[in-house]
């Protein structure tokens, strides 16, 4: 949230995340819902250059979250461009950190709930 709030001025909140998960809103921080089903969500960033995919799998005693992320060219058949090639490493690190901190936060919540 820090990076989105201060670099592209697209803040978000836990309340908005909950609304997004309940299909009550289609815009969240820097993303807009591109497609949605009962268990999957595909989001597109505000400049249409990245996609984020989420899928839930209900297991016996927990829910498993799958995540995928892609950087796409402006037009089919084109490369990503110099700047996006430079930022690709940042995008990969950001994605890993985002998932890590989400997992940490959920783990701490789980301990408080028990």
Summary, kept brief:
The chain has 114 residues and is of the alpha+beta class.
How many DSSP-defined strands? 5
Which value, in Å, is the CA radius of gyration? 15 Å
**Fraction of helical residues:** 40-55%
SSE string: HHEEEEEH
Enumerate how many helices there are, as a single number.
Answer: 3
Identify the overall geometry: globular
Backbone structural class = alpha+beta
Number of structural domains: 1
Low-confidence blocks of residues: 1-6
Main sheet: which strands, in order across? 1-2-3-4-5
Biggest beta sheet attributes: 5 strands, antiparallel
Overall pLDDT? 81
Hey, roughly how much beta strand do the residues contain? 25-35%
Question: What would you note in describing this structure?
Answer:
- This protein is α+β, with helices and mostly antiparallel strands.
- It has one domain (2-113).
- The protein is 40% helix and 28% strand.
- The chain is built from 3 helices and 5 strands.
- The chain has helices at 2-7, 14-21, 82-113; strands at residues 27-28, 31-36, 40-45, 50-58, 63-71.
- Strands 1-2-3-4-5 form a 5-stranded antiparallel sheet.
- Strand 4 and strand 5 (63-71) form a beta hairpin.
- It starts with a helix and ends with a helix.
Helix-strand layout with pairing:
Layout: H1 2-7, H2 14-21, E1 27-28, E2 31-36, E3 40-45, E4 50-58, E5 63-71, H3 82-113
Antiparallel strand pairs: 1-2, 2-3, 3-4, 4-5
Give structural attributes.
globular; disordered N terminus; alpha+beta; five-stranded antiparallel beta sheet; 5 strands; 114 residues
């Amino acid at each position: 949230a820090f990076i989105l709030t201060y670099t592209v001025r697209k803040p978000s909140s836990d309340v908005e995340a909950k609304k997004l998960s309940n299909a009550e809103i289609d815009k969240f921080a820097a993303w807009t819902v591109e497609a949605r089903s009962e268990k999957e969500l595909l989001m597109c960033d505000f400049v249409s250059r990245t996609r984020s995919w989420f899928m839930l799998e209900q297991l016996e005693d927990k829910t498993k979250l799958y995540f995928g992320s892609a950087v796409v060219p402006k037009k089919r058949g084109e490369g990503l461009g110099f700047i996006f090639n430079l930022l690709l490493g940042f995008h990969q690190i950001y994605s890993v950190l985002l998932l890590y901190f989400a997992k940490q936060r959920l783990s701490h919540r789980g301990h408080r709930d028990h």
